[in-house]
Amino acid sequence: MAHVNEHYLKLQAGYLFPEIGRRVSAFADANSAAKIIRMGIGDVVKGIPRPIVDAMKSAAEELAHDESFRGYPSEQGLDFLREAIAKNEYQDAGVDVGADEIFVSDGSKCDSGNIQEIFAADSTIALTDPVYPVYCDSNVMAGRTGACRDGRYDGLVYLPCTEDNNFVPALPEQDVDLIYLCSPNNPTGAVMSRDALAEWVEYARAGNAIILFDAAYEGYITDDGLPHSIYEIDGAREVAIEFRSYSKSAGFTGTRCAFTVVPRELTGHTASGEPVALHGLWNRRQSTKFNGVSYPVQRAAEASYTPEGTAAVRGLIAFYLENAAVMRERLAACGYTIFGGVNAPYLWLRTPAGFDSWGFFDHLLQNAHVVGTPGSGFGAAGEGFFRLSAFNQRDAVEEAMDRISGLK
Amino acid sequence: MAHVNEHYLKLQAGYLFPEIGRRVSAFADANSAAKIIRMGIGDVVKGIPRPIVDAMKSAAEELAHDESFRGYPSEQGLDFLREAIAKNEYQDAGVDVGADEIFVSDGSKCDSGNIQEIFAADSTIALTDPVYPVYCDSNVMAGRTGACRDGRYDGLVYLPCTEDNNFVPALPEQDVDLIYLCSPNNPTGAVMSRDALAEWVEYARAGNAIILFDAAYEGYITDDGLPHSIYEIDGAREVAIEFRSYSKSAGFTGTRCAFTVVPRELTGHTASGEPVALHGLWNRRQSTKFNGVSYPVQRAAEASYTPEGTAAVRGLIAFYLENAAVMRERLAACGYTIFGGVNAPYLWLRTPAGFDSWGFFDHLLQNAHVVGTPGSGFGAAGEGFFRLSAFNQRDAVEEAMDRISGLK
User: Fold this and answer.
1) Angle at Cα A84 formed by Cα A82 and Cα A90, nearest 5°?
2) What CA–CA distance (Å, rounded) separates B281 from B265?
3) CB–CB of B282/B260 below 8 Å?
4) pLDDT by residue (tens digit) across A2-41?
């Protein structure tokens, strides 16, 4: 008799965004005249820059001809893209990452969800609260937790990110094996300073822990003093895996491309204490359960590094950051307490008195026809907060702010 | 201290195809004048049909404009493609599969590698020998086996496919929970008859087992009497998941698109015997660790169902089947004993006297500069056999056959 993976049954009802989708659909069905403005899921809205789309089309055309046809892409990513990433994302900024340490994928969600597979089933996992749900749920599904009680799973080490610590997690009091960090942060918009990150690297080095560093939003960092990569910190190559994505920079949410860096010298250990290179384990995982990214998509990602592509991507990011600035100003004028939205595309606001997170979600949806994301969907410490995404057209942002300003 | 998933360390050196790649590279480096003909990995070589490429380019162009931009594709696949699949692959052939039972993905390798996640860690797994390595390796990595001894992992139930049973597996003698079947088969090219498949469905129904049915090569079936889908068998909806792919039909090995069917009524059970719908579990897996297939790729897949697309795909398949027929005839004339290559793109030949599988691999590479796949790479029962793929240009097929004919 086939038995199911019962760890799945511990998961709380619905992944956050599908649940939002269901509530929005129900509202839209019942209120067909309402013009809903979506600031929830954090999906970009601007067209992909011309040089990038042209590269995708040109690569698609190559596939039409026997002479230029391309079959299986390598599971690690094609050399032209791995080399462009190493140079443009790292080496030109003086950061030591080689092309062969880069694994191209179809999304940071996939990578950050799959990475736990290469670690032991009894690993102790630390993650921030609030947190991007994938880090948590993928470990629940793998059996690294007990049941969920009051929004927290037994066995996980939660690192609260609150106003008190400026939404930057403190080091845990107990030993942990794997630590998920995300900076610029989803959902809070907080960005870790070089010093804060250095403290974590030191902690990981001291205890042979591994940091899983999600830098999917690094393109939004404009302050020179803030680190874009964990590998800017001395010693991080021996303790950190980094995830990056084209979704929020080049507008690839619907195109799908991302990458993961696994340095050559990074090791985990066997139970008996032998070091094992994580590069080889991740390579084996990808070689066995993944077949590479679509060729036209890899050419499109490559084109984001041409001078025209780079300039256009910077323009997209600047546009969304301007949205964030508008939102910060307008919401502050209404009396909201706001965090994030600087060096990050997400605003994290305190819900007004009398509303919990889902209550404020329903309130905004019903009365302003604006969709945000309830903070409690990201963890217990997110209760009383609400995420708004700056990924929208300017007129929609202005309209949403007008509506929110007009709420009783 | 971060500990690794030590189950990975049980895996035998290198996934098969990377190992072949290494040997071929080494040979090519040492013999730069040799014109190597690749009949190993089974990668297609013909350009993707015009209507399909045009759909991909047109969808890419949509992404360039704010008005037509598309963000996150749904994790299950976009409705237009799920509906086209349900109609064209199933309903038009009288097979009962609904659009909402289809999960679009970036490859059957991913799907057949990931599917085991939704089942219990102590599941008993049956797979054929020889077998597509992903079914085996993904279960090794998940800890469902013991060590590997003489090419077989402790704890797996191997179903030998030999000349004696015409390479169609017999039912196991013990109870098993999950059964991987692949028809048309990779690597043997054998195709299961309706009666053989019905026997398996009956076995699974009797024991509440689940069949994981890989139909990635179903497009190659030309005999009217052979089943294309396991759902042509009565009762299969309650015991089977089916995988299909565009890789070998529309030429999508480098484009990446596939799908998995999980019928609504299909259930696994908890340890205490409660039924759990597998549709919901797979949906949760995909929603958490996958973010959908690139929009232009989904439009390309959809275009394979237009009248022009369908005709062109049929033409591609017919071309490769003609290759297979040429290979069968030429190799038989040289005295080789050949299986497969009819209703399937793979030929499975007995290695000549004096050669084991890897020995014949090296022999062909060194002396004919032809790359095939050693049968033993697919399992212990594949020893003494060799896979040749029909995915090549006709002149390369002829040239390879000339060279093999000329071998001493």
Assistant:
1) 90
2) 13
3) yes
4) 999 999 999 986 667 778 888 999 999 999 999 999 998 8
Q: Which domains does chain A have, with CATH numbers?
A: 6-46+313-405 (3.90.1150.10), 53-307 (3.40.640.10)
Gap between the Cα atoms of A150 and A381, Å rounded? 11
Residue with tokens 């390798």: B109
Q: Do B3 and A66 touch (CB under 8 A)?
A: no
A403 min Cα distance to partner chain B (Å): 23
Q: Which amino acid is at B337?
A: T
Q: What is the per-residue pLDDT for B42?
A: 85
Closest CA relative to residue A289, chosen from A103, A120, A14: A103
* C-alpha dihedral (B290, B292, B296, B301), degrees to nearest 10: 110
Helix (H) or strand (E) holding B269: strand B267-269
| Nearest residue to B155 via CA among B165, B147, B164, B145 | B145
Which mean pLDDT values do the consecutive 10-residue runs of chain B (408 residues) have?
97 77 93 94 94 98 98 96 98 97 98 98 98 96 95 95 97 96 98 98 98 98 97 98 98 98 98 97 96 98 98 98 98 97 98 96 97 94 97 98 92
**How long a stretch of residues is chain A?**
408
C-alpha to C-alpha distance for A90 and A77, rounded to whole angstroms: 17
Contact A106, B106 (CB under 8 A): yes
Burial grade of A35 (CB within 10 A; 0-12, 13-18, 19 or more): exposed
Interchain pair B281, A5: CB under 8 A:
yes
Query: Looking at chain B, which residue has its C-alpha nearest residue A46?
Result: B66
The amino acid at B99:
A
| B69 with A48: Cβ contact below 8 A | yes
> How many other C-beta atoms lie within 10 A of the C-beta of residue A225?
7
Which residues does chain A have with pLDDT short of 70?
Answer: 13-15, 408
- Report residue A335 CA to chain centroid gap: 29
Amino acid at A267: T
Do A263 and A273 form a contact (C-beta atoms < 8 A)? no
For chain B, the distance separating the N- and C-terminal CA atoms, rounded to the nearest angstrom, is 58
Q: What is the pLDDT of residue B15?
A: 64
Q: Quote the minimal CA–CA distance from A385 to chain B in Å.
A: 23
Q: Which of B84, B92, B93 is nearest to B232 (CA)?
A: B93
User: CA of B303, closest CA in chain A: separation in Å?
Assistant: 14
Q: Cβ distance B343 to B220 under 8 Å? A: yes
**Amino acid in the structure at residue A241:** I
Closest Cα partner for B316 from B32, B26, B15, B49?
A: B49
State the smallest CA–CA distance between residue A253 and chain B in angstroms: 5
Pairwise CB contact (< 8 Å): A109 & B46: no
Regarding an ipTM greater than 0.95, the answer is yes
Cis peptide before B169 (omega within 30 of 0): no
Q: B136 and B127 in contact (C-beta within 8 Å)? A: yes
Contacts of A118 in chain B (CB under 8 A): 4-5, 8
CB contact under 8 A, B287 and A18: yes
Q: What's the CA gap between A268 and A277, in Å, rounded? A: 6
| Nearest beta carbon to residue B110 from set A71, A138, A291 | A291
CB contact under 8 A, A3 and B119: yes
Of B71, B175, B209, the CB nearest to A254: B71
Beta bridge partners of A153: A148
Chain A, chain B: beta-carbon pairs less than 8 Å apart: 279
